[in-house]
Specification:
This protein has 456 residues and is an alpha/beta fold. It has 16 helices and 13 strands. Strand 5 (190-193), helix 7 and strand 6 form a beta-alpha-beta unit. The longest helix is centred in the first third of the chain and has 27 residues, at 90-116.
């Protein structure tokens, strides 16, 4: 499907170039070179893995692939024209063709990524091998995120928990020897191999049988917590070694990031000061009490600081009790069921929270160096110690500064969502940080704020 979409977009780009040439405003381009350019574009994108099935159809990932393919193809065609068919207009024509192709290819991929995010998307029937904790987590996330393109149909596990016939509504369909029958009955096209009590030889046999059946196979590595996006595969004979590089939270890259945060934080604070003064006036005149809400939060290395917000609630001593109930929900069920209690938000406060305008004073925290623009959201001091004891890898998120927005938030993990999932996304950000990841988060923050209710 992707190659058909790109071919269609390239055809539209070529048509645009030819129409411009026929209008007399530009010199007409030889159709042979245009055709070669289009074919090279498709070939370069294919070589770079642009047509392989991938989870998370992120428009940013797609844009990088197609724009690089369009640029490389343009360089090749311009070079060939200079060598074999010297033409003073070759460079200008090549650049114009590249610009048209980049625009159309990029628009097509972004449009497809947006279409993939519809909640009723029909995914590829997927079988999960292993009904343990990891297998259940994988199945649940695939079911919750249809935009990933994989729809779990059930589990294959010889030794599921006693009396457990289904997990989150997904049945245990059999054991390893039932693979072919299950694939046939449920039209399975993709298999995810997670952890299982089955020995290595059995799991290896399942993977090979899946490939013989023409199925796509994904494997969860044993030490998946330590596998980042910076992985180099090396071989010692027939044994594969994964050499894993990680972003260093103590390295110079993060120091540069924090310095830029403080610089831009101070500049933006000056720019938004008129808006901030208006909001301060609204808060002051519409309800009694202080304008700013201060609360101790925990940031990098467990250091405490006062986070600043515009007050959005009526002053009441019961607030601490409601917060305590929220914390108990987070620790008990793992997924908070709601804030509970009386809604004490003011009319102005509801608007401020809906669009996260109450967070604007946190630019002061950024300018002071307490926070970063992007990073894990800081948590209240009173709950951090409890969360560290009950939530897996919770303390690891404090390796970097807290942020105004983060990878968890732009992926929908805001407000009443799973704390353990947020922690996992936060640690992914820390271990896979790059400037480009920060840019992606910034670009995704505005649609995330508009599409979802704010954190409480």
């Amino acid at each position: 499907m992707l190659i058909v979409l790109d071919a269609l977009m390239l055809a539209m780009a070529v048509a645009g170039v030819l129409v411009g040439g026929s209008s007399g405003r530009f010199h007409p381009q030889p159709i042979g070179w245009i055709t070669l350019y289009a074919l090279l574009c498709l070939a370069v994108i294919a070589i770079r893995g642009g047509y392989r099935f991938r989870l998370e159809p992120s428009p940013f990932e797609y844009l990088g692939q197609v724009l690089a393919g369009a640029a490389i193809a343009a360089i090749i065609v311009i070079g060939l024209r200079v060598i074999f068919a010297p033409d003073p207009d070759a460079a200008v024509q090549g650049v114009r063709l590249w610009l048209f192709a980049s625009g159309y290819l990029g628009a097509g991929r972004v449009g497809l990524a947006i279409a993939h995010r519809r909640p009723n998307r029909r995914g590829v029937p997927t079988l999960v091998i292993g009904a343990g904790a990891v297998g259940q987590t994988v199945a649940r996330r695939l079911a919750e995120r249809p935009q990933l393109g994989l729809a779990p149909v059930g589990f294959l596990d010889k030794d599921p928990l006693p009396g457990l016939d289904s997990i989150d509504g997904l049945p245990v369909l059999g054991a390893s020897w039932d693979l072919e029958d299950v694939v046939r009955r449920h039209n399975v096209e993709h298999v995810v191999v997670t952890f299982s009590t089955a020995p290595h030889t059995v799991l290896l046999g399942i993977v090979r049988r899946c490939r013989a059946l023409g199925l796509d196979v994904s494997v969860v590595p044993r030490l998946y917590e330590e596998v980042s996006r910076r992985v180099t595969v090396e071989h010692v004979g027939g044994i594969s070694l994964l050499r894993i590089e990680r972003a260093d939270p103590r390295g110079w890259q993060f120091e540069c990031k924090y310095a830029l945060d403080r610089l831009f934080g101070a500049a933006l604070l000056v720019l938004i000061s008129p808006l901030l003064l208006v909001l301060i006036g609204l808060v002051r005149t519409t309800s009694p009490g202080p304008v700013f809400f201060r609360q101790e939060r925990v940031g990098i290395d467990g250091c405490e600081f006062d986070v600043l917000k515009l007050r959005t609630m009526c002053v009441s001593p019961e607030g601490s009790e409601q917060d305590a109930a929220w914390a108990l929900q987070m620790l008990g069920a793992g997924d908070p069921a709601g804030g509970g209690g009386e809604d004490r938000r003011t009319p102005v406060g509801k608007v401020l929270r809906r669009f996260c305008l109450d967070e604007l004073p946190q630019f002061v925290n950024v300018a002071r160096g307490d926070m970063s623009f992007i990073g894990p959201r800081p948590e209240r001091t009173g709950y951090v110690r409890a969360f560290e004891q009950h939530v897996y890898r919770y303390g690891d998120r404090h390796r970097v500064k807290s942020g105004l927005t983060g990878w968890a938030q732009v992926n929908g993990l805001r407000g009443e969502t799973s704390l353990s999932d947020r922690v996992e996304w936060d640690n992914y950000y820390v271990e896979n940080w790059s400037p480009w990841l920060d840019v992606k988060i910034l670009l995704l923050t505005i649609p995330a704020v508009l599409a979802a209710p704010p954190e409480t």
